[in-house]
Amino acid sequence: MSADLFRNAALGCMAVVCAGTDLYCGKVFNVVTVPGFVLGILSCAWTCGAEGILNIMCSAAFTIVFLYPFFRAGGLGAGDIKLLAAVSAFLKPEIFLRCFGLAFVFGAGIGLLQLLHSRGRMHTVHFAVPVAVSVLLHFAGVY
Question: Model pTM?
Fold first, then answer.
Protein backbone atom coordinates (compact mmCIF):
# COMPACT_ATOMS: atom_id res chain seq x y z
CA MET A 1 0.00 0.00 0.00
CA SER A 2 1.44 3.37 -0.98
CA ALA A 3 1.91 6.09 1.62
CA ASP A 4 -0.69 8.37 -0.01
CA LEU A 5 -3.27 5.60 -0.14
CA PHE A 6 -2.63 4.80 3.52
CA ARG A 7 -2.92 8.47 4.53
CA ASN A 8 -6.15 8.90 2.56
CA ALA A 9 -7.65 5.70 4.00
CA ALA A 10 -6.76 6.76 7.54
CA LEU A 11 -8.15 10.27 7.01
CA GLY A 12 -11.36 8.99 5.43
CA CYS A 13 -11.93 6.45 8.19
CA MET A 14 -11.28 9.03 10.91
CA ALA A 15 -13.63 11.57 9.33
CA VAL A 16 -16.45 9.07 8.76
CA VAL A 17 -16.14 7.53 12.25
CA CYS A 18 -16.20 10.99 13.85
CA ALA A 19 -19.25 11.99 11.80
CA GLY A 20 -21.00 8.80 12.91
CA THR A 21 -20.21 9.28 16.58
CA ASP A 22 -21.23 12.93 16.37
CA LEU A 23 -24.59 11.98 14.86
CA TYR A 24 -25.16 9.02 17.16
CA CYS A 25 -23.70 10.25 20.47
CA GLY A 26 -23.37 13.99 19.93
CA LYS A 27 -19.61 13.78 20.56
CA VAL A 28 -16.37 13.54 18.65
CA PHE A 29 -14.17 11.28 20.75
CA ASN A 30 -10.50 11.83 21.58
CA VAL A 31 -9.91 8.10 21.12
CA VAL A 32 -10.35 8.75 17.38
CA THR A 33 -8.97 12.26 16.86
CA VAL A 34 -5.80 12.09 18.95
CA PRO A 35 -4.44 8.86 17.40
CA GLY A 36 -5.53 10.23 14.01
CA PHE A 37 -3.47 13.37 14.56
CA VAL A 38 -0.45 11.36 15.68
CA LEU A 39 -0.81 9.00 12.72
CA GLY A 40 -0.99 11.97 10.35
CA ILE A 41 2.19 13.44 11.83
CA LEU A 42 4.03 10.11 11.67
CA SER A 43 2.98 9.43 8.09
CA CYS A 44 4.01 12.95 7.11
CA ALA A 45 7.37 12.49 8.82
CA TRP A 46 7.81 9.36 6.72
CA THR A 47 6.89 10.99 3.42
CA CYS A 48 7.30 14.78 3.78
CA GLY A 49 10.08 15.34 6.27
CA ALA A 50 10.58 18.27 8.63
CA GLU A 51 8.96 20.86 6.36
CA GLY A 52 5.75 18.82 6.23
CA ILE A 53 5.66 18.50 10.01
CA LEU A 54 6.13 22.27 10.34
CA ASN A 55 3.20 22.77 7.93
CA ILE A 56 1.05 20.44 10.04
CA MET A 57 1.89 22.29 13.24
CA CYS A 58 1.09 25.64 11.62
CA SER A 59 -2.23 24.33 10.23
CA ALA A 60 -3.19 22.82 13.59
CA ALA A 61 -2.23 26.02 15.43
CA PHE A 62 -4.26 28.09 12.94
CA THR A 63 -7.25 25.80 13.51
CA ILE A 64 -7.09 26.06 17.29
CA VAL A 65 -6.49 29.83 17.40
CA PHE A 66 -9.13 30.62 14.77
CA LEU A 67 -11.82 28.37 16.26
CA TYR A 68 -11.21 29.00 19.97
CA PRO A 69 -13.59 32.01 20.07
CA PHE A 70 -16.34 29.85 18.53
CA PHE A 71 -15.69 27.21 21.20
CA ARG A 72 -15.87 29.84 23.98
CA ALA A 73 -19.14 31.15 22.54
CA GLY A 74 -20.62 27.64 22.51
CA GLY A 75 -20.82 27.38 18.73
CA LEU A 76 -18.36 24.50 18.40
CA GLY A 77 -17.29 21.69 20.65
CA ALA A 78 -13.69 20.91 21.50
CA GLY A 79 -14.02 17.62 19.61
CA ASP A 80 -14.88 19.51 16.42
CA ILE A 81 -11.72 21.59 16.78
CA LYS A 82 -9.60 18.51 17.48
CA LEU A 83 -11.10 16.80 14.44
CA LEU A 84 -10.16 19.70 12.18
CA ALA A 85 -6.67 19.81 13.70
CA ALA A 86 -6.33 16.08 13.01
CA VAL A 87 -7.53 16.57 9.43
CA SER A 88 -4.80 19.20 9.03
CA ALA A 89 -2.21 16.50 9.78
CA PHE A 90 -3.19 14.63 6.62
CA LEU A 91 -3.59 17.42 4.05
CA LYS A 92 -1.29 20.01 2.52
CA PRO A 93 -2.04 23.46 3.98
CA GLU A 94 -3.74 24.83 0.83
CA ILE A 95 -5.96 21.76 0.55
CA PHE A 96 -6.71 21.86 4.27
CA LEU A 97 -7.83 25.49 4.02
CA ARG A 98 -10.24 24.55 1.23
CA CYS A 99 -11.55 21.65 3.32
CA PHE A 100 -11.84 23.96 6.34
CA GLY A 101 -13.78 26.59 4.40
CA LEU A 102 -16.01 24.06 2.68
CA ALA A 103 -16.88 22.43 6.00
CA PHE A 104 -18.04 25.80 7.33
CA VAL A 105 -20.09 26.48 4.21
CA PHE A 106 -21.80 23.09 4.57
CA GLY A 107 -22.25 23.60 8.31
CA ALA A 108 -23.85 27.01 7.74
CA GLY A 109 -26.13 25.53 5.07
CA ILE A 110 -27.23 22.72 7.38
CA GLY A 111 -27.84 25.22 10.17
CA LEU A 112 -29.91 27.43 7.89
CA LEU A 113 -31.99 24.48 6.68
CA GLN A 114 -32.58 23.38 10.27
CA LEU A 115 -33.59 26.90 11.25
CA LEU A 116 -36.04 27.21 8.37
CA HIS A 117 -37.45 23.73 8.93
CA SER A 118 -37.91 24.13 12.68
CA ARG A 119 -39.28 27.68 12.43
CA GLY A 120 -36.70 29.35 14.60
CA ARG A 121 -36.08 26.68 17.25
CA MET A 122 -32.45 26.00 17.99
CA HIS A 123 -30.86 22.72 16.90
CA THR A 124 -27.34 21.42 17.03
CA VAL A 125 -25.35 21.16 13.84
CA HIS A 126 -23.20 18.08 14.16
CA PHE A 127 -20.11 19.71 12.67
CA ALA A 128 -18.18 16.48 12.14
CA VAL A 129 -20.62 15.69 9.32
CA PRO A 130 -19.70 18.74 7.18
CA VAL A 131 -16.02 18.03 7.91
CA ALA A 132 -16.43 14.44 6.69
CA VAL A 133 -18.33 15.59 3.60
CA SER A 134 -15.60 18.09 2.73
CA VAL A 135 -12.91 15.39 3.16
CA LEU A 136 -14.85 12.96 0.97
CA LEU A 137 -15.37 15.65 -1.68
CA HIS A 138 -11.61 16.18 -1.69
CA PHE A 139 -11.13 12.47 -2.35
CA ALA A 140 -13.70 12.69 -5.16
CA GLY A 141 -11.60 15.42 -6.79
CA VAL A 142 -14.15 18.20 -6.35
CA TYR A 143 -11.44 20.55 -5.06
Answer: 0.91
- Give the pLDDT of residue 24: 95
Residue type, 75: G
CB 14 within 8 A of CB 86: yes
Tell me, what amino acid is at 127?
A: F
Indicate if the pLDDT at residue 59 is higher than 70: yes
Residue 32 pLDDT > 90, yes or no? yes
Burial 3-38 (b: 16+ CB within 10 A, else e): eeeebbebbbebbbbbbebbeeeeebeeebbeebbe
Residue 40 to residue 34: CA distance in whole angstroms: 10
- Quote the CA–CA distance of 28 and 83 in Å, as a whole number: 7
H-assigned helices in 2-143? 3-25, 30-47, 50-72, 78-88, 93-117, 128-139
